Amino acid sequence: MKNLAAMLAMAAGLALTLANSGAIAATECNGAPLSGTVTGRVVINAGDFCVLVGATIKGGVVVNQGGTLLACNSTISGAIVANDASNILIGPEEVPNCSGNVLSGGLHINNTGPGLLAPAPSISIENNVIQGGVHLTGNAGPIVVSANIIDGGLFCKNNTFDLGDEGTPNVTITGEITCKFGS
User: Fold this and answer.
1) Which residue from 119, 112, 130 is spatially nearest to 75, judged by alpha carbons?
2) Residue 12 belongs to a domain
3) What is the model's pLDDT at position 183?
4) Torsion angle of C-alpha atoms 68, 176, 130, 165, degrees rounded to 10
5) E strand segments, 132-170
6) With bands split at pLDDT 50, 70 and 90, how would you rate the model's confidence at 20?
7) Average pLDDT of 5-32?
8) What does the pLDDT read at residue 32?
9) Model confidence over 79-111: pLDDT tens digits?
10) Residue 181 to residue 131: CA distance in whole angstroms
11) pLDDT tens string 108-140
12) Helices and strands (H and E) in the chain: how many
C-alpha cells in the first residue's frame, strides 16, 4: 500500500511537471486595452482591434487576417508577425500618449492593408527600438517607418507603396536595407 501511494504521488508530480513544461496558451486581445505582463503569445484575430498600452509581452504577437494592432509604450519579447492584417500601428506619434516600444524578435508584416483607419497609414512603425529585422512584404497600403533604431536590417518586397518617414528619418538601421523611401 505504501509503495502504491508513493507511485501515485510520483505519477501526479510527473504529470504536473509535464503539464507545466508545455506551451503556454495564447492570450487573445480583442477590444479592451491590454497592459501589464503577459507570459506567452498575444493573438489578434479577424475583426479584432488590439491596443497594447504599457504591456510586457513575453512570447511575441500574432496578428491574423483582418486584425488591427496598436502598440504604445510596450516591451515585446519575440517577433510581431502579421499576415493579411488590416492595420499595424507600432508607436505612431499621431496617437496621443503613444510613445515607442522596445521589440526583440523583429517584425514580419505581410499582405497588410490597405487599412481601415484612413487617412492613417496601413502600417506605421515609429519611435521604436527594434532588435531584429523588419520585413515588409506584399503590403497594399501606405507604410511609415520613422525615428526608429533598427538592429537587424530593413527589408521590403512587392509592397504597393514606397516607405515614408514623415520627414523624420530613422535614427539608425544596422544591417542591410532593401527598401526605398518615397518623397
Assistant:
1) 130
2) no
3) 60
4) -60
5) 134-137, 143-146, 149-151, 154-157, 163-164
6) very low
7) 51
8) 87
9) 999 999 999 999 998 899 999 999 999 999 999
10) 21
11) 999 999 888 777 789 999 999 999 999 999 999
12) 1, 19
Segments forming the whole domain that contains residue 126: 25-174
Strands 87-90, 123-126: parallel, antiparallel or unpaired by DSSP?
A: parallel
Distance linking the first and last C-alpha atoms of the chain: 81
pTM of the model: 0.85
Cβ-proximal residues to 106 (8 Å cutoff; 6+ apart), any chain: 79, 80, 130, 131, 132, 133, 134, 135, 152
Q: What is the mean pLDDT of the chain?
A: 87
Residue 97 lies in a domain: yes
Cα 56–chain centre separation: 12
Helix (H, G, I), strand (E, B) or coil at 112: coil
Q: Which residue has the cell 533604431?
A: 149
Checking if the pLDDT of 150 tops 60, the result is yes
Radius of gyration of the CA atoms of the chain, in A: 20
Cell 528619418, located at residue: 169
Q: Which grid coordinates belong to 123? A: 502600417
Q: Kindly state whether residue 36 falls inside one of the protein's structural domains.
A: yes
What total number of domains does the chain contain?
A: 1
**Does residue 117 sit within a domain?**
yes
Q: Which three cell numbers stand for residue 50?
A: 488590439
